[in-house]
Amino acid sequence: MEITGRLTKGAQVRTTQTDKEVVGFTIAINDSYRKKGASEVAQLVTYIDCSYWRSAAIAPYLTKGTIVQLSGRLNEPRIWQDMEGTARANLSFTINEIKILGGGNKSNASSPQETKPTSPTKGKKTAQAVAATTGEEDDLPF
């Protein structure tokens, strides 16, 4: 199953009793619809608690407002009662794959930097540089 939403706050890394790290965060999925016969558009927001068990290294990139596309499975809802006795439910999602689509607070997360080779030819590779990176001594790659 795939879902797309926006993080409500920055991701948090927790460590379990068995020393496994899990990245946890909540996303909001916005939807709008028009009720039959109404002229106003109604807004609906669904909140889903998410957990990612594969690598905690992604946590700094998951900041408030970041739009993510998640692949995984929806778990059974957890049903509970609030203090007034109203029935409530929490949805949770176990993630297999995360795609960061954009948005978010970029000042809190350091984005990966692309490394560029420095050479006196200002970006043009020489035959020796190409041979060194491809493992070929005499042949040009084109």
From TrEMBL:
BP terms from Gene Ontology: DNA replication
Superkingdom, natural source: Bacteria
Molecular function in Gene Ontology: single-stranded DNA binding
Pfam families: SSB
Keywords: DNA-binding
Stretches for region Disordered: 102-142
PROSITE patterns noted in UniProt: SSB (PS50935)
NCBIfam families: ssb (TIGR00621)
Protein name: Single-stranded DNA-binding protein
Organism whose genome encodes this protein: Pseudopedobacter saltans
